[in-house]
Structure prediction request, 191 residues.
Amino acid sequence: MKSLITTLGALFLAAPTLAEERTYIIDPGHTHIVFEVERFGYAATVGVFPDSSGEIVLDMDHPENSRVTASVNTPTVWTGLASRDQAVNGPGFLNTAQHPEIRFTSTAIELIDEDSARVTGDFTLLGVTQPVTFEVDLNRIGPDPSMGGREGAGFSMRASLNRSDFGNTTAAALIGDTVTIRIETLGHLTE
Prediction:
């Protein structure tokens, strides 16, 4: 990240009208949120949330002051089996009728190296908010050819959480407590 920041910093010196913060709107068509949880000890069940939104604000001079807000439309969950999707949406798991959204708002960023950071924030699931830390890799900042050259920023993120921390203990003896999350996301610079 530092090398990218240095390059972008040079651009700022050449074009002083640019702001030090850049806001990227998360592109739901190029964002994949995948979760995994152990089921009955045989194999993990994998699911996808295809509908998300949010923004990533990068502070080019002080990346530790960057921030992210994001939300997921939980009723769109897909696990590859309609009956399982119905169960996951039901009151025993995501209870999407009562809680149609998962939210994340960053509260702290710890830089690891030039292209990675730990991003901690308030994660709200089932109406309960707990701190969750994502390991984040900055993949690339640059013109996106699929968007006519509009600047994009791509990230890979990983985290794990215990569903019991959010009040969900349904079938605790059969279904794992740990949920792993992987996110691949692309944001585009606001115009």
